[in-house]
Amino acid sequence: MQYIAGIDIGGTKMAVSIADRNGPLVRIAEATVKLGTPRAPAEQAVSMLRSACERIGISLSELGAVGVSSCGPFVKHGGLIHLVAPNICGGIGNRGDLLNDWESVPLEQVLREHFTHVAIQNDCVAALAAERAFGALHNEDNCAYVTWSTGIGFGLCVDGRLLHGKNGNAGHAGHMLLTDQSQAQCGCGNYGDTEALASGRNLEVQYGRSPEELFNAVKEGDVHAHAAVVHAAKWFGRALYNVTATLDLRVFAIGGSIWHHHGDWLEPIVREEICSHLPALTQGVQLIRPALDAHVADAGALYLVMPDDWVADWRQLSLWDRIAETEME
Ligand SMILES: [Zn+2]
């Protein structure tokens, strides 16, 4: 296999990248298409891959395998993965803020019309796989990759095995119910789940200020903003406690824009919420920063289909770092 491709599908943006044994070759990013037929986002990915191939002078058929790191959840129809993502499909939940009425996106079906080797994973599972292969979780057998951003998601590894579940949705602890005493609603429809209480999208719904505005207000000494953010951090910590208690994990690598920018002062609040319960389960639990940073999703997508004999070179030479340099307008 000479060339592999990665697709990163998010609620806001989509990115594709192509790599060979020696590293990333090209990357293109666009806003995720959320208009037209439910096939549109999948067709957008194929069209972006075609453009990326043109940039490096190869044809689409030369891509030996395509890995996909996508926001979830997934459902399977006829064994094929469809996206049922509240941030892409306007037919889910009742927010009315998306201009389509899609119930699901037939992602795998569209990709298989063009490629024979396709591997699709939830974005946090792909990120976890990449951090274990190349990054901060190397040699960790009981660990999680967590993102705290627009949404909140987990990729879980127990006894050295990545957890997938019946539809590939293991790790959707962002929709784990934490309280029925809250009016905070998640995009999935739940009240009082982890995302409802702490995700960037729902902080904005709850407090009428974007996470950036909220955190800026905290810096300026706004006590209400401070209380709101501490409240969110405690619930986030409780979610981590519940996952620790359930799976006996040792390390959480936490990424996502909220943690990336504010993790330094949020960490003691989150750590206190984890460690103030049942020390037998929580003692020694570590919260660490991921190593792959902004391109963890691209690296994760590529890693899903990467030949084993490339992996050591990618790790040793930090080749994923070059993804940023291959960015095309
Ligand atoms: Zn939810």
TrEMBL record:
One of its GO terms (molecular function) is kinase activity. InterPro entries: ATPase_NBD (IPR043129), ROK (IPR000600). It comes from the Bacteria. Keywords: Kinase, Transferase. Belongs to the ROK (NagC/XylR) family. PANTHER family: BIFUNCTIONAL UDP-N-ACETYLGLUCOSAMINE 2-EPIMERASE_N-ACETYLMANNOSAMINE KINASE, ROK (REPRESSOR, ORF, KINASE) FAMILY. This is Sugar kinase. It comes from Oxalicibacterium flavum.
